[in-house]
Each structure stands twice: as structure tokens, then as C-alpha cells.
Design brief:
By secondary structure, this protein is of the alpha+beta class. The strands form seven sheets. A nine-stranded mixed sheet has the order 3-10-11-19-16-15-14-12-13. The longest helix is centred in the first third of the chain and has 20 residues. It binds adenosine monophosphate. The site of adenosine monophosphate has 15 residues, from strand 11, strand 16, strand 19 and helix 14.
Length: 511
């Protein structure tokens, strides 16, 4: 099986079962744009909810905002995006196809060329005789290409606007109002979830590199002199994270370094507690979503790879079938953006501290891509074993549907009782799905294929003695239990409080 085909298998299920499909598919697609279908939308929402709960709602000093996606040019002039948010582009002189220069080099030679100058890229392309992957034509010299989508605001034009390439800028430009809302007290964080747009030169790999994608970001503002006084750091101090240091990258590495966040800060592997806090939070979140801990790590980016505003970036990279991919970006943005916007608008962004000191806060930014996390979960939960069908082993927290209710037959009142149970489960807050068509085995297979953790079957015993059968997706084991215990049993199973085997007092059904 070639690695590329593994992604194709997942895409095939996504298309067929309503997870994701290309935008404007019937017109041939639009390159880098995707629509979430019915199941994809449910799962995407769960990913967002998990982030919102642990990164925002569980914190007392973090609030979420929702800003406009279109911003006037002045914002991006000040932030540096107009001048520096660029990728190196090469074009085939024969068929006019365009490519990102560092990607074409990586594909041809495996060399990482991100962040190299145009001259250096040209030299590598010429030294390795790299030609157009489509037609073998000669490639042009490399030039910079700005990734922002430009438009004009208003019927008469005149004011240029850009779709935001990251959600962050809305927060920086509203800083004055936000800091008032937060009663001028550091540290505090402002979160935002929403769409960002980048006119990627060659979007590819499904949701991994799109032109429109969603980010869940926090701008965490703190006093730089107190960068190792994060108020909740002690809560994550013992959590182990996987780190790939710059030194390891220079020497070559096989395995990331496993280290507690506390040791990572003490040994200066991670620059400060604010950044380390988020690396711990992300580690816990991905694991809860079914991404194994040994399949991702935080790589300290080299200076020339980091964005123009960065004083240290740690990318969360996952080991995917298409190679190592950045799934989450973590940046120390210093006071760069606030200083730039203050200067451009003649504003004062200083905050007076209790001791009288005035500071322009520094910023730590965890930037989580919804689409990349969504795809990583799909890939890491995809199972092909000897069942005769593929299935997703989604943990209930990300499963698009949580329980399926099936009447064994449509007749004799079984369908009515099953529908009643389905409605009760929905009323109790479960994402329940009702299906009465086809053989029961086929229905289990269809439920497995979209990762429904539990199926509940209503049969003739249900009518006689008010019992139902629960089937566990992962083990395919079945247990019969009284209908009145169903809701509680499901709750315990989904929260991980009970194991399927723990329901011993109930009758085990041999398959
Ligand atoms: P960056 O600002 O480039 O570090 O991006 C932050 C995060 O946004 C990345 O880690 C991705 O999860 C996501 N992201 C960036 N660019 C894209 C893209 N073209 N398609 C999908 N997700 C993206």
C-alpha cells in the first residue's frame, strides 16, 4: 500500500459518508476549498467545543471574541503581512503551472528549504536539475508571492481590503477595548475561532493545506518580566511532552525527547512557562481525541523558518501517512504586533502594573488549525482489520454520532419502541441516530464505518422484559441490560467511568 493511498482511503469514506467534500464539486472544485458535510459538521463542532471548554471556558482570565474576516489594508500594512506574508513561487515556462519553491525542492530532494532566500532556492533548483513535475519543463526564477486575498471595499472601491490570513489581528487592533474589559490586569487572554484565508500557491493534501481554513487561536498577554509566573503552570508541571530541540535537528533525531513541562522550562528547552503551558494543554487535548502520544511532538523551529513576528515557534508536528505535518503553531509574538499597531495609529498600549511600572505586554499564541486536527483524528482513528469493513475508533468526545438505535425488525411494535428510546436518548443530550433499514449486521457495519461507539438494539425481549442490547464498537461484544439502566450505562461508558466488561451482572451475549 503506498502512503498516499492511505489518505485516499480516508477521503473516500469522507466523501461517501458525509464528512467532507470539495467546495463546488459539481463544477470541478475550487482548489483548496472544502465543505463539511452532515457528519463532518458534527465532528468539527465537537473539536471546537473541546478546545473552547479546556482552553477558554475553564480559565477565569480568557474570553472569546468573534471578529470580522475582512480587514482594511492599513491593518496588514502595520502588521507586516503586506510586505512579508509571502511564499516563494516558481512557474513552469512550458505549461505555466505554479509551485511553492521549497515544496518542489522537498519533493525532489527531501531537503527542507523553508525560509531560504530566493537566490538560495534558485541555486538548489538548478544544482539538482529540478524541472516541472507535470511536464518536465524548465522552471522560472523564484519570486515572492503574497498569500493574502485582496478585494475592494464599497461600490466605488478606493479602499483595499484583505481577507485575514490569521485570526489574531482582530484581537491586536481591538486591544484598547479588550484591555479595558479585562480591567487593565495582566495576564489575560483573548481567544478567537474562525476562518482564515491564504491564497496558497499549491493547496494539497485535502484539509491539510487549504485556501480557506479555520483556526482556534488565543493571544495570551503577559508581562515579559514575569514570563515564568504563569498562574496555573503548577497544574501542568508534571505533564510529559515530546520535544525536538534545535540541537537534535542539527544532529539528526529518531525519537523526540520526552520531558515534563517543568523540566523543559528549567532546562530552557522551552523558552517560558506560558508557551510550555499550552504545549501541555495541546498534548492532553490531542490524546483525548484519540491521537497516540508517540505520534506527535513539538519542534523548535529554526530561526529562518519562523514567521516575521516570532521570537520562538514550537510547531506541533504529527507523524501522518503523508509525512511529518505541522498541525498546531505555537508562537511567542513578543510585543511586535501591539507596538506596530500603536505606532501606526498613534495609540498607547501600555498597561500600568500595580507597582507603577508600565508595560506593553508580550504575547504567547497557540494557533490550532481545525481542519488539520480533524484530518489527524480521522487518520489516527482509522482501522482496517478483519471485520470486512473499515471503521473509525473515535473516542466518544469526537465521535460525530454517539449511539445508534436499531429495531431488530420494523414490525410488531419494535420500531415504535426503538424510536421512543432514540427520542429519549436525544432528550438526554446524546447524539443518537435511528436506523431501521437493512439486516442488523449491515447496520452495525454502517455504524462502525462512521465511528459510532455504541449501538442499541431493540428485539422481542425488549417488548417482553424491557431489556435492550448494547453493542460495543471496539470489541463488537454485546450486553443485554434493563432498559431503565440504558441511559446511565451509556453515560458511564462514554465518560470512561465504566468498562464494557464491568457490566458483568448483565447477560453477556455470545456472538
Ligand atoms: P501558522 O500561522 O502558519 O503557524 O498557522 C497556524 C495553524 O493554522 C497551523 O498550525 C495549521 O493548523 C493552520 N493552517 C495554516 N495554514 C493552513 C492551511 N493552508 N490549511 C489548513 N490549515 C492551515
Amino acid at each position: 500500500m503506498s502512503e498516499e493511498r492511505f489518505m485516499d482511503k480516508i477521503i473516500e469514506v469522507c466523501l461517501r459518508r458525509g464528512f467532507v467534500n470539495p467546495t463546488a464539486e459539481i463544477y470541478g472544485g475550487a482548489g483548496g476549498f472544502y465543505d463539511y458535510g452532515p457528519l463532518g459538521t458534527l465532528m468539527r463542532q465537537k473539536i471546537i467545543d473541546l478546545w473552547r471548554q479546556s482552553f477558554v471556558l475553564d480559565e477565569d482570565n480568557i474570553f472569546e471574541v468573534a471578529g470580522s474576516v475582512l480587514l482594511p489594508e492599513a491593518v496588514f500594512k502595520a502588521s507586516g503581512h503586506l510586505d512579508s506574508f509571502e511564499d516563494p513561487l516558481v512557474q513552469c515556462e512550458q505549461c505555466n503551472s505554479m509551485f511553492k519553491a521549497d515544496t518542489i525542492i522537498k519533493d525532489a530532494t527531501s531537503q527542507i528549504a523553508e525560509g531560504l532566500s530566493l537566490d538560495e532556492l534558485d541555486k538548489i533548483i538548478s544544482k539538482n536539475n529540478i524541472s516541472c513535475p507535470n511536464c518536465k519543463g524548465t522552471l522560472s526564477k523564484t519570486r515572492e508571492f503574497n498569500l493574502m486575498f485582496k478585494t475592494e471595499i464599497g461600490p466605488t472601491g478606493g479602499i483595499n481590503g484583505y481577507l485575514r490570513p490569521e485570526t489574531a489581528q482582530n484581537i491586536f487592533i481591538n486591544f484598547k477595548r479588550l484591555v479595558n474589559f479585562m480591567r487593565n490586569k495582566l495576564p489575560f487572554g483573548i481567544a478567537q475561532m474562525g476562518s482564515s484565508f491564504r491564497n496558497e500557491i499549491s493547496p494539497r493534501n485535502f484539509l491539510i493545506r487549504g485556501r480557506e481554513f479555520e483556526q482556534m487561536e488565543i493571544e495570551m498577554f503577559y508581562d515579559h518580566d514575569k514570563e515564568n509566573e504563569h498562574p496555573r503552570f503548577h497544574e501542568v508541571a508534571d505533564i510529559e511532552i515530546n520535544v525536538v530541540t534545535r540541537e537534535m535537528q542539527e544532529k539528526g533525531w529518531d525519537e523526540p525527547l520526552k520531558v515534563t513541562t517543568e523540566a523543559a522550562v528549567e532546562e530552557k528547552l522551552i523558552p517560558n512557562q506560558y508557551l510550555a503551558y499550552y504545549l501541555a494543554m495541546e498534548t492532553e487535548m490531542l490524546q483525548a481525541m484519540g491521537v497516540p502520544e508517540d505520534s506527535f511532538w513539538f519542534r523548535h523551529m529554526q530561526d529562518n523558518e519562523a514567521p516575521h513576528y516570532s521570537a520562538g515557534n514550537f510547531d506541533l508536528e504529527a507523524d501522518l501517512s503523508i509525512g511529518h505535518m505541522e498541525i498546531i503553531g505555537n508562537a511567542l509574538r513578543t510585543d511586535y504586533d501591539l507596538q506596530k499597531h500603536a505606532k501606526a495609529t498613534n495609540s498607547n498600549f501600555e498597561i500600568a502594573m500595580p507597582d507603577g511600572k508600565k508595560v506593553v505586554p508580550h504575547v504567547c499564541e497557540p494557533s490550532l488549525g481545525v481542519g488539520r486536527i480533524f484530518y489527524t483524528v480521522l487518520e489516527k482513528c482509522f482501522r482496517e482489520d478483519n471485520r470486512g469493513w473499515t471503521w473509525f475508533q473515535f473516542p466518544p468526545v469526537v465521535a460525530p454520532l454517539e449511539v445508534a438505535v436499531f429495531p431488530l425488525m420494523k414490525k410488531d411494535g419494535l420500531a415504535e419502541l426503538a424510536q421512543e428510546i432514540h427520542q429519549e436518548l436525544k432528550d438526554a443530550g446524546y447524539l443518537s441516530f435511528y436506523d431501521e433499514s437493512g439486516k442488523i449486521g449491515k447496520r452495525y457495519a454502517r455504524a462502525d464505518e462512521i465511528g459510532i461507539p455504541y449501538c442499541v438494539t431493540v428485539d422481542y425481549d425488549s417488548l417482553k422484559e424491557y431489556s435492550v442490547t448494547i453493542r460495543d464498537r471496539d470489541t463488537m461484544k454485546q450486553i443485554k441490560l434493563p432498559l431503565e439502566d440504558l441511559e446511565i450505562a451509556l453515560g458511564e461508558l462514554m465518560d470512561g467511568e465504566a468498562d464494557f466488561d464491568e457490566f458483568k451482572e448483565f447477560e453477556q451475549i455470545e456472538k
